[in-house]
Amino acid sequence: MSATGVTLQPGDVLGAYRIDRLLAESGLERAYLAEADEGRRVVVKVPRFDTVVNAESLRRFTRQAQTAARVSDARVVELLGSGQLADGVPYVVEEYVGGGSLQDLIGRRSIEIGTAVQVCSDVARGLDVLHEARIIHRSLTPACILLEDDLHAKVGGFALAKDRDASNLTRAGHTVGAAHYMAPEQIRGEEVSPATDVYALGCVLYATLTGQPPFASQVGMKLLWAHLQNAAPDPRTLRQEIPVDLSWTLARALAKDPKERPATAGTFARLVQISWESAALRSRDPAHG
Amino acid sequence: MAEKARRQQALRVSWRTKALGLAAVATAGSFLGAEVRRIWKLGSLSEEQDGSDQPGATRRIGRMLRIARDGYGVSRARRNAVFNMLVSFMVTLGATRSITVMIRNEVGPFRNVQFGGRHVHHFVPGMVLCLVCGGVALGTRNERLHTWLAVPFGGGVALVLDETALLLELEDVYWSEEGVVSLRVAFTGLALLATVGYLIQFLREGSSQLLESDWRAAARAWQDISEL
Fold it and tell me: B7 lies in a domain?
């Protein structure tokens, strides 16, 4: 283990996995591309030094493996295994999703509305599976949505996920999450629910459609304040081709009161789908308008 | 000599009036001080969180203005309204008294306002301001608008109360012994307004109250996220 954490080199072997290269780094962990014995490509995650020495961070790192292990669905990143390095530092092995993250795609180009709607449906399905397992994601962002080559999406990044039946890693009233995608009740330190993830999914769809999250111009605590008090700017001001119905549906997901949002992520995705399809129908046959 | 003596006599006020004035200014001053501290504290939350403190006089002034704007902006509308009204009341009362003294001593550019050969006393524009602002406030439900209407309304109230003696006696007794009643009433009004300001913080105000608590929640949450 180096001073900055567990550093693996190309060619290093962890059980059945041979390390290929570093894929990504976050504050919590490093993700490496590796190859399994049977030739399958996988992602090996190891904690950073700060994570190893911080008991809460280390628990978060291991909690994500436990969370992923509880769900199995095509729209959730699959956990393939976990173990410990020689010095007792844990690692987890996940499936490799080859198309990069939604964040990368948003950064690269403008995404077709139909594709955005499809990604939203996929992520909603993954979230519904998590919610049925009584898990709240709490930190859904485009960075933790991974894309397959055909642009179907999978939900990953469970470091801040909350198991509604398990003990809290977070002290009462303490806020965790991703600032640009954080629901008002999460900012207030109130109880989170599936509606919290619906809000985040709304922000993700907003970013997918417009290239930026709802309150992109705000920084620091004023960003969180905007989530609490300001209505999100109409996405049509940033991209005129977004149908009005879709804009309204998006506004429903971004309601400040969790009770005013669609009841489940799946419901929201269906509303998005209907808004998009009816707009597409109207554009093909104006008589339907 | 006789005229000068008359003027000095007219300006003399009893120790009771002075004590009342002192008490009113102390009450209003302590309220305004507490409000400014509260506004500053609220505004500073965003400054501390954003870490945008820079050296230099211009930047310091800019920072102070940002803090004041942020703190005032997230304060409850009703508190801001009382704050505005009180400041406006005090400034108008002080300015009116100063101007009337200057007019009486023929110092400076100010003169009595005459309309059709008739002296227009300052309670007249005061009443007009109160009528217009009060009417608009009653006819609207916009809390932000009420906050700003409090400024001319406070000024109007000060102009009217400053001529209470005239309205009671139906005679221009502004500089006579009876005229001191106006000062007493104005001081009492000032003290009452400050007391209302103290009491209003105990009223629950729905969404307006949420504004201030949300601001604190955002500051706390940002600190939590930054530590993560």
Answer: no
Residues of B with CB under 8 A from a CB of A: 45-46, 49-50, 74, 211, 214-215, 217-222, 224-225, 228
Q: Which of B49, B211, B228 sits opposite A221 (nearest CB)?
A: B49
Claim: this prediction has a pTM higher than 0.80: no
Determine phi and psi for A34, rounding to 5 degrees.
-140, 165
Residue A235 lies in a domain: yes
* Intra-chain end-to-end CA distance of chain B, in Å: 79
Instruction: Assess whether A156 and A78 both reside in one domain.
Output: no
Cα–Cα distance, A189 to A176 (Å, whole number): 9
Where in the sequence is the domain holding A22, given as residue range(s)?
13-95
A222 touches chain B (CB under 8 A): yes
Q: Decide if B217 and A187 are in contact by the 8 Å CB cutoff.
A: yes
Distance from CA of A275 to the nearest CA of B (A): 32
- Closest-CA distance of chain B to residue A88, Å: 24
Is residue A203 in some structural domain?
A: yes
Burial A88-125 (b: 16+ CB within 10 A, else e): ebbbbbbbbbebbbbbebbeeeebebeebbbbbbbbbb
| B123 closest CA partner among B57, B169, B60 | B169
Phi, psi of A167 (to 5 degrees): -70, 155
Give B219 to chain A, closest Cα distance, Å. 5
pLDDT tens, position by position, B6-20:
555 555 678 889 999
Q: What is the pLDDT of residues B20-51, one digit of tens each?
A: 999 999 999 999 999 999 999 999 888 765 55
CA distance A279 to A248: 12
Residues in A closer than 8 angstroms to B50, CB to CB, are 219-222
Confidence check on the interface: ipTM exceeds 0.90, yes or no: no
Residues A61 and A137 in one domain: no
